């Protein structure tokens, strides 16, 4: 079992399989993209399978596949097939922009993969296209509805972006009230490939909640798992639920059970910090299993208690993009 230096159990791995993405969301990276990693800097699919197996052997029981956009990797299903055979891995989740997932839906179902987070930051097509800088709205929307209809446990990630999409907060809840889906509103974080830096946000969780409450007074707060990053609510008459994730305000660090590994092998113990180490060459060296275990233990043995503490150590502005970190 993996326990960090603050006695928190680490059982949730967020594994980025690529840093490439076919969208260019303006809060995530500049229009020209970032300096994407060379192919040989990325883990191969065999390395990702091996790494996952080692991590599950260490007590990880939930893996979220993320990126970049996971489905830009043509061999992604090889990894997902492997994950579905790992004993002790109880939860395989995917975070996707839902542009490319369509052809894979039947096999995802066969593999028993249920939890899919779809990033959708607008319900209005023009707003979506302005934010993503691509015209993929219809594909994304159709795949989202298909995933819900096929019985996946779907959550929508919607970042509240000042002057960009907050006018869509109520409309997306109105459209989604007919579906068993959870719409989660996230605070914007300063990881956008260095295109803009900020120290405060207007649309924090309180403002998001006040805004929703002013439209729907009949809201009930729901019980959430201890390690949940979202505070969840039910609106009377809606089939699904909504949640708010204080990703900038960081009120959830105390129960953090996560570890991130990037597509190039960086071990990230907190979103607000620098990578602790890199595992790529370790994966390509000798005694892989024991070396990886040792490195992971060392990384989680020096975690900051909170994202604020980690940020203090960071020194300087955040220049990285969420497409390298995996969200
Ligand atoms: N391509 C996939 C997707 O679109 O969901 C997975 C990778 S994406 C980097 C993972 C998540 O990070 C998405 O939900 C995205 O909205 C979120 N994200 C990216 N940049 C962010 C930022 N600056 N603040 C908050 N969330 C961000």
From TrEMBL:
Instruction: Write down the SMART domains for this protein, in alphabetical order.
Output: Elp3 (SM00729)
Give UniProt keywords alphabetically.
Answer: 4Fe-4S, GTP-binding, Iron, Iron-sulfur, Lyase, Metal-binding, Molybdenum cofactor biosynthesis, Nucleotide-binding, S-adenosyl-L-methionine
The record's section on InterPro entries has: Aldolase_TIM (IPR013785), Elp3/MiaA/NifB-like_rSAM (IPR006638), MoaA (IPR013483), MoaA-like (IPR040064), MoaA_NifB_PqqE_Fe-S-bd_CS (IPR000385), MoaA_twitch (IPR010505), MoCo_biosynth_MoaA/MoaC (IPR050105), rSAM (IPR007197)
Q: Which Pfam families match?
A: Mob_synth_C (PF06463), Radical_SAM (PF04055)
Query: Which molecular function GO terms apply here?
Result: 4 iron, 4 sulfur cluster binding; cyclic pyranopterin monophosphate synthase activity; GTP 3',8'-cyclase activity; GTP binding; metal ion binding
Enzyme class name: lyase
Q: Known Gene3D superfamilies for this protein?
A: Aldolase class I
The reaction(s) catalysed by this protein are: GTP + AH2 + S-adenosyl-L-methionine = (8S)-3',8-cyclo-7,8-dihydroguanosine 5'-triphosphate + 5'-deoxyadenosine + L-methionine + A + H(+)
**EC number, as in UniProt:** 4.1.99.22
Q: By what name is this protein known?
A: GTP 3',8-cyclase
């Amino acid at each position: 079992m993996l326990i960090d230096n603050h006695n928190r159990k680490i059982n949730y791995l967020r594994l980025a399989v690529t840093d490439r993405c076919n969208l260019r969301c303006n809060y995530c990276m500049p229009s020209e993209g970032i300096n994407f990693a060379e192919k040989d800097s990325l883990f191969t699919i065999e390395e990702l399978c091996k790494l996952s197996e080692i991590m599950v052997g260490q007590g990880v029981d939930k893996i979220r596949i993320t990126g970049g956009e996971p489905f830009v990797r043509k061999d992604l299903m090889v990894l997902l097939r492997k994950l579905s055979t790992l004993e002790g891995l109880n939860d395989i989740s995917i975070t996707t922009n839902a542009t490319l997932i369509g052809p894979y839906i039947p096999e995802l179902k066969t593999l028993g993969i249920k939890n899919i987070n779809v990033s959708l930051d607008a319900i209005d097509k023009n707003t979506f296209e302005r934010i993503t800088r691509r015209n993929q709205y219809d594909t994304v929307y159709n795949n989202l509805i298909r995933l819900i209809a096929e019985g996946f446990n779907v959550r929508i990630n919607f970042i509240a972006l000042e002057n960009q999409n907050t006018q869509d907060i109520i409309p997306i809840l109105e459209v989604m009230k007919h579906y068993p889906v959870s719409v989660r509103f996230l605070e914007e974080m300063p990881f956008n490939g260095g295109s803009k830096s900020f120290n405060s946000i207007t649309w924090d969780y309180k403002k998001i909640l006040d805004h929703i409450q002013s439209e729907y007074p009949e809201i009930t707060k729901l019980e959430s798992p201890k390690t949940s990053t979202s505070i969840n609510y039910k609106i009377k008459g809606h089939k699904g639920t909504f949640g708010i994730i204080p990703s900038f305000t960081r009120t959830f660090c105390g129960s953090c059970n996560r570890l991130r590994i990037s597509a190039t092998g960086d071990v990230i113990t907190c979103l607000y910090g620098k990578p602790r180490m890199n595992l790529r060459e370790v994966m390509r060296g000798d005694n892989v299993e024991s070396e990886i275990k040792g490195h992971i233990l060392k990384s989680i043995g020096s975690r900051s208690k909170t994202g604020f503490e980690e940020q203090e150590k960071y020194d300087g502005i955040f220049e990285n993009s969420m497409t390298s970190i995996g969200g």
